[in-house]
Amino acid sequence: MFKFEVHYQSKKTQARIGTIVTHRGVIETPVFMPVGTQGTIKAMPPEVVNSLGYEIILSNTYHLYLRPGVDIIKELGGIHKFINWKKIILTDSGGFQVYSLSQFRKITEEGIIFKSHIDGTEHFFSPVTTMEIQKKLRSDIMMVLDTCIPYPLSYEETKNLTELTHKWAIESFEYWQRHKNEKQAVFGIIQGGMYEDLRKYSAKFVTSLEFDGYAIGGLSVGEPLELRNHMIEISIEYMPYNKPRYVMGIGTPLDIIDAVIRGIDMFDCVLPTRNARRGTVFTSKGLLSIKNANLKDDSSPLDPECECYTCRNYSRGYLRHLFHAKELLVYFLLTLHNLFYYAKLMRHIKEAIKNETLEIFREELAEYYFKNNSSE
What we know:
disordered C terminus; 2 domains; TIM Barrel; tRNA-guanosine(34) queuine transglycosylase activity; eight-stranded parallel beta barrel; three-stranded antiparallel beta sheet; single chain; Queuine tRNA-ribosyltransferase; alpha/beta; tRNA processing; transferase
């Protein structure tokens, strides 16, 4: 059971509000998915993540395949039971992780040969094996294997990798036609690098296959913001209106709003959780580094306008002390705050879409976040 419906379409932009219905529940879009790479949102109990309003998280096929292993997860009841997350889970194919370990992998027509970053053992991912792995995990939304294209890259190399993504998309689609079930959905991934004609070509090709939803991949790999937004605009032209649209791996507040304005429904990024562990938090006045010396005797909360547990109970001075003392509590408190901020951001985005004030909201955020607008 998987269904997507648009409930409100902005009259000023391409932004829209919709719902994704799965057998586990309903997600209102636009939606941000926290990243639980190894089956956990780092430093956060699942119940707390859910209490902040999150209905869906992302886990990583590559990492779970290597450790603890998909057969163990299957034996222990599937990924939801294994990690104690009762809501919806999207698993990526592992292609990006393999891409990021470029010195340890080799791309072939059949798939990707790679060495484990854990123990150096050699492994192989094909379009079919990644689908089989995700089927065993029992995730609710599965991503097909693609080739994440770096930036910059020559036209010819980009074209070849895009063609390979298309070949793998067909293999994944055909596998799913033979093995589909009512509890899992599959999304295709558009590539094409930063070349307009290749993006158009890829968007047309991938959306010609009847996947349950479509993602735009290969962004946030070092390209300028204007170019990224242009690639989103090109891709959107060919993406069906009645299916979810997902941009993979982008996640600053401005990145998200810019993509929502262009018609995107789903997002994931490690930014709120990774930044928290590095001592940086999102606030109503922009980014704040808890490491700054001028906060050592500051009795105010991280953000006076925030109602999260951290801001209601702890001062900047105390949080700075915890961070420099490397006390584990600080990772929970800062991560909770950042996830609270992102949940509130998505609520405000939906309200702005309904009120036709999204572009105004973007300008207000840009005043504080423009200089920091880069996805890590």
